[in-house]
User: Fold these one by one.
Assistant:
Number 1:
Amino acid sequence: MDFSKYHALGNDYIVIDPNKTKFNLTKENIQLVCHRNFGVGSDGILYGPIIEGNNIKLKILNPDGSEAEKSGNGIRIFSRYLLDQGYINTTSFTLDTLGGKVLVTLLDPKGKLIKVDMGTVTFSSDSVPVAGESREVVDEVFKLGNTSVRITCASIGNPHCVIPLDEVSEELAKEFGPLIENHPMFPNRINMQLLRVIDRNNIEIEIWERGAGYTLASGSSSCAAASAAYKLGLVDNKLKVHMPGGSIEIDIDLDGHVHMTGSVSSVANGKFSDELWQNLE
Ligand SMILES: N[C@H](CCC[C@H](N)C(=O)O)C(=O)O
């Protein structure tokens, strides 16, 4: 078996396990495997487990070949993979990501519902990062094309730009997304969420992901958008984030840790054909 494919609310990932298969983790190979027509197709690759002593590490790759510091849906999917493959025999464990350690709790024996302590969120321009003087980027006016919006930027390991609007849509996410993702204000590029507040315990987001484009759901985006709405005083600390692919529960605790609870679904286990790599020539 070369790979296992899962999705989390329609945000799909391919798990490639270096303990089971040889895979050269080059930009070209990542782009090809993730390609929706010439490859298997996915919103990214989860490469691991990379086991170092008692630590379990995973690498998170976007379809454009860039590496992400964190992925909420990716962490839940990877945790389910570890359970399915017998790597873990406890209901709670930590994982190492480029963006820091996360604490995972399996909420059911089959790993279909998983909770993750994603760590804390910072709005510091130096941490996200956002260009300009050091500040918290909260409710800042931002010129976008021939319009202007108000942005709140957050990092939960990976960077996010949250834009509250009265109405959100796929079309608007696809219009604003590339402009925000690649704007010079964001030296490491950035994920973008359009945010509509439904009430103090429900928000709706439309997502444009750094290195992946429009996606149906995003765990770290849910954490960032919920944290931004909470920082702006628009919601309580327990809320549901509604996305086109489904919803995620967020709980921001007293020490600022953001807890994300969501589902995971298995799609397939598979083998790459030798012919796949000919597309690289
Ligand atoms: N594209 C994101 C990583 C994946 C985030 C998303 N799929 C999630 O579930 O958090 C980035 O470059 O930061």
Note: Residues 3 and 16 are 5 Å apart (CA to CA).
Number 2:
Amino acid sequence: MARPHTTALIVAAGKGARVDPSEDALPKQYRQLAGKAVLQRSIEAFLTLDYVDSVMVVINSEHVPLYNGLPVKHSGKLLPPVHGAQTRQESVLAGLEALVKIAPDLVLIHDAARPLVSQQVIGDVVAGLIRAQGCIPALPITETVKRSQNGDGIDATEDRRQLFTAQTPQGFKFKQILAAHRDASAIDRAFTDDAEIAEWADMPVSMVTGDRANMKITHPEDFVRAAQLLRGEALMETHIGSGYDVHSFEPGDAVWLAGVKIPHHAKLNGHSDADVALHALCDAIYGALGEGDIGTHFPPSDAQWKGASSTVFLEHASKLVEARRGRIVNLDVTIVCEAPKISPHVPEMREVISRSCGIGANRVAIKATTNEKLGFAGREEGIFAMATASIELPRQD
Ligand SMILES: Nc1ccn([C@@H]2O[C@H](COP(=O)(O)OP(=O)(O)OP(=O)(O)O)[C@@H](O)[C@H]2O)c(=O)n1
Ligand SMILES: C[C@](O)(CO)[C@H](O)COP(=O)(O)O
């Protein structure tokens, strides 16, 4: 059976008034949380998953410049954003309507305000959709729950064994939740989550165990707690990888080096666009991850990689780092050739690599040297490159 087409719909059109009610406040989803905007974290949590085919973000029409300023890596999976509305419910419906042209099988509706969502929770929700039309992560209540009409006197104590708090992503069969949301928008009732709409529409919704770290950033102090969770969860350790690659010259008029096309009296012969610098760099990252090398992921025998841009492989390698909840600390490449001259191209090379990996250009170094006319590189029979990658990964012990 074919894998269901799955889209993540991230709602980010709120104003975050409970974090800061002032008109000119930076909305919470655009605030930094341990070095990354909240919304960027939420988007990346889904973009990095192979079984998520596309990601759509619902934004507030007043936040367009803020959204465009997010350094989210360009990816065909990230669809153009759509504008939301006054309530979460309306924003979700706007997103669902925009997805009609894609008509995914499954949709995962997620609050931008839950940036710590884990792969485990997302995977469990998707797995839960095999047996139900809807599935949400939820947690049992751990404190005693009181009912009170005025917030003062107690009217009753609830049986908390039957009470759970709902999280996101809330996953649904797309057609059914779209129909339910449309019907719900026609009645005078405010629904606080999508599962409530599904329940109202008699769709069976199951629950899987949520995650305490998958908190919704709602009040100012939640930023402190989320940052602590990120730090505690990610007790990081450093991994170093090295890469080496060589390609020979053949007749041609340009070489690809570190993602830049440089006019030359020959071209390089080899896998894809024969970019030795990016190949060495990818191998360094794969090495740091302990995940084989470029040929493991992109076999040279596979015709689809013939002539392909090696930036595709670099993006893949850096996504693997993200999927492991790691981060690239720095990348260092040395290109060895008599010609062409590399130094004029270094700024562009650093830019290409930083864009492909979603890191600052200050974390990328490109060096070049001649081989003092010694050996094959000295005789201008080919070019070789060496690279080192330093990455941080959650501790494995
Ligand atoms: N009109 C709205 C309201 C909320 N949301 C989104 O729904 C999620 C959950 O909502 P909440 O945490 O309540 O966010 P805000 O509405 O922004 O917060 P507040 O109520 O404090 O203003 C958030 O990611 C928020 O951006 C939305 O897309 N459109
Ligand atoms: C959808 C939700 O995150 C489930 O817990 C929550 O209901 C959204 O919060 P809001 O404050 O009601 O927008």
Note: The first strand starts at residue 6 and ends at 12.
Number 3:
Amino acid sequence: MRKLAEHNIPLREASITQVHSVLRDGNPLIVHTSMFANALASLANPKQQQQWVPLAEKNRIIGTYAQTEIGHGTFVRGLETTAIFDPETKEFVLHSPTITSTKWWPGGLGKTANAAIVMAQLYTQGKCYGPHPFFVQLRDFDTHHSLPGVILGEIGPRLGINSQDNGYLRFDHYRIPRTNMLMRHSQVLEDGSYVKPIHNKLSYGTMVWTRVAIVHSCSKKLACAVTIATRYSAVRHQSELVPGKPEPQILEYQTQQYKLLPHIASVFAILFSASSVLRMQRNVAASISKGNVELLPELHILSCAMKALSSQDSTQGIETCRLACGGHGYIASSGLPSLYTSTTCTITYEGENTVLLLQVARYLIKSYRAGLEGLPVLPSVMYLTAPSAMHQSPPLSNQALIEAFRISSANLVKETESRLCRQFNLEQNFHYAWNRCSVALVHCAELHSRYYMCEKFLSTVESIRASDRVRSVLQDLCRLYLIHHITLNQGHFLRSGTLSGVDLSTLEEEMYELLAKLRPQAVPLVDAFDFRDELLGSTLGAWDGRVYERLYEEAQKSPLNKTDVSKAYHKYLQPLMKSNL
Ligand SMILES: CCCCCCCCCCCCCCCCCCCCC/C=C/C(=O)SCCNC(=O)CCNC(=O)[C@H](O)C(C)(C)COP(=O)(O)OP(=O)(O)OC[C@H]1O[C@@H](n2cnc3c(N)ncnc32)[C@H](O)[C@@H]1OP(=O)(O)O
Ligand SMILES: Cc1cc2nc3c(=O)[nH]c(=O)nc-3n(C[C@H](O)[C@H](O)[C@H](O)COP(=O)(O)OP(=O)(O)OC[C@H]3O[C@@H](n4cnc5c(N)ncnc54)[C@H](O)[C@@H]3O)c2cc1C
């Protein structure tokens, strides 16, 4: 926090710095500096911002974002916490009517936060208007005691991020002023009348913003993992590549290159996609402030798609890096286990991935149908009904591979839409039919998202002007990424007829050549991510390569090594040894 102040970084921008990485196993202030700060910036009106933002900036108020309940995370409309407007006192009464309405999970809620943005069902004049955000003080700002009517606690140990206090929260008819409803987009007036927003999902804006931030953070986490595993693979020597010859660096093995290089490529693919979505988000935010919400659905879908793909890719990539380090990847001091546990949760939070991919699929099907009817569709999905352009590029060129992705994605949407129609004819109910097609629908969303990511990777690399040498290496890396994902999805390309069996064999050959060509670039590429050793926090991945010395030094810090004979010997082992059991 002192560093942020020194560099004049406002709170709402803190989460895009590396401040969150200071604590290895979760940061209790992450939701304060990210979601809470963003909710104030985007959901509060100017008067409310004047009131709370300076206090939050000075960390007098420490906030969290309390939406999820034990009973409902995904289905936001199903939240049970109520905020009922009392026109007599001009207050909202917050209440948790059931066990399932208990707020559950918010980061920092257990012990750190003294305030929260609470999402609750808004009732006024006897009518429910759905989930709305409220600023709620939870603890006394001086004593930190929870306030009467507020029941708070921590939810217990988790798979990871255990230095963050994820919490629970219940309200017992807890009263807050009317003006604590965040009123930038919708309002409840003094007489209780409701003023609706220009788009009814604007109150979900903080989730959209966070999904975009998560895409960036996934690229950073994966970059840390590939840095550790690649440097280690250059230090580690094992086995014989040629009998009788010295043990090679494990990075010489083609299988090791196959484990690492596609994930190094993935760091760039995710980062370039994140930058593109961030640009879109800034444009949409500017339009919203002028009253234009036309592009909001597109941003929602793109952020869902990229959050889902990047969290899945980075989690799998980090686990592959861990396995690529053999036994030493399993030790905590390698840094890889905590990278994994603090990344796998991004698959679940801020919208569980399957659920987000189904949102994308819904948009694809709607856009496809609209396109067939000649209705206008947004640019990112025009390709679904646009004529094929496969023949325009040289065979198997980068552009041809992108076109193959595009046509295969359009083909899959077309096939799945037909299946949906057939299923609808059988079921006579759209929702049952949708559920019976949902595995295929998720595949549609994944292929569309991969197409977007590949396209962003290629177009960004092609636009590099600063250095021909850098562009050339990144072109190879991008080519590897395209071919790698084509080989992983061969079925889609064969089904759509965009690539033949012979094409796929040719591409596979090229992939093996690229692994060898890129091998000398592996260490320079990860060095260029430029992580300080303190930030990597890894015995295996430090810049100087002193892996074995660091492992040994770190072992000396184990509390069990403070004495030669441990207490457990006297307490348990010795009695056991003497017991003749
Ligand atoms: C360029 C360089 C920049 C520099 C950057 C460098 C960066 C480097 C480092 C970066 C580090 C960053 C670190 C920050 C990380 C931050 C981590 C913070 C920690 C997070 C902790 C976790 C918090 C949480 O999890 S909070 C709780 C989140 N909960 C959810 O996400 C719930 C998921 N569910 C939903 O969102 C919805 O209910 C949903 C999407 C499932 C929709 O449900 P539905 O049944 O369809 O219902 P409905 O709501 O009625 O929708 C109908 C309609 O509306 C559309 N819709 C839905 N949502 C939206 C939306 N948000 N916006 C617009 N439209 C929306 C939906 O698509 C439907 O449309 P139609 O089909 O047209 O009807
Ligand atoms: C580490 C961590 C930190 C968190 N921090 C916060 C926080 O700060 N604030 C906050 O409010 N929340 C937070 N959460 C909660 C998080 O947002 C939810 O857990 C998440 O949105 C998923 O909801 P759920 O747990 O209800 O899962 P569920 O929705 O119950 O998912 C369970 C399964 O059901 C499936 N499913 C659910 N609905 C559908 C559907 N419509 N179609 C098909 N399949 C479906 C899912 O795909 C999944 O396989 C956090 C969670 C974690 C793990």
Note: The chain has 19 helices and eleven strands.
Number 4:
Amino acid sequence: MQPAGVAAPLKVDITEKTFRSAEGVTIVALRGLSFEVRQGEFACLLGPSGCGKTTTLRILLGLDRRFAGSYQLPEGGSKRIAAVFQEPVLLPWRTVEQNVRLALSPRLRGKDLDSLFEILGLSAMRSLYPSELSLGLARRAALARAFATEPAILFLDEPFTSLDERTADRLRRLLMTVWAARPTTALMVTHNLREALLLADRIIVLSPRPAQVLGIFDVGLSRHSRDTPALDNLVSDFHKRYPDAV
Ligand SMILES: Nc1ncnc2c1ncn2[C@@H]1O[C@H](COP(=O)(O)OP(=O)(O)OP(=O)(O)O)[C@@H](O)[C@H]1O
């Protein structure tokens, strides 16, 4: 048991998660999946398509309680959990700013959001409605909403899919800037190795379904040094260590 006030990691120990298909066939999505994310760390869960990454996040978000095993959220189960999904899920009849403020606890509702909107390049878009935003801007609004809540843990499920590469890259860099300004324990699901190498402190490498941890890849390079040649080297180091992963 972690004493109150002491930094606690995210601990995951899922013994098994199965689904029953429409034809009555049992699909084992996860079996023996165990890992930790340290306090204040940005970790990526990297694995091939269909291996069980989203299933894992849904369990950690409390959206799926039918599994065997256990997990412990940072700070002994604080309620401040934020999530950014593939779809930004903004309320269409609310402005960007209202969407962000609605997510805040009463204590934070009136807080100054200027610097957060500024970092994310959203200062001029605060009073726009979601239908007036490009997909890239809507994703930024979803990031603003997540960080505004000052979460104990932030879960991200492939937040940069279906964007052109330039927009995705700009958003990845914005995510790093906002995370550096407001560090929080973060777990991001992706099947994009370069993305994981650009963003993560450590990568939790998963096997094909049922997802198990093949190993942990410690990126071990400061984020400012992760330019294209450095990323190329990291990709090659990664493939040497995990020739069969992703
Ligand atoms: N509600 C469900 N009913 C039946 N099978 C499911 C259900 N949800 C997920 N699955 C199956 O469980 C497995 C894991 O799915 P999951 O979405 O977690 O994978 P993923 O690693 O996130 O994939 P991707 O990277 O393509 O999003 C897949 O075989 C999927 O078809």
Note: The first strand starts at residue 10 and ends at 20.
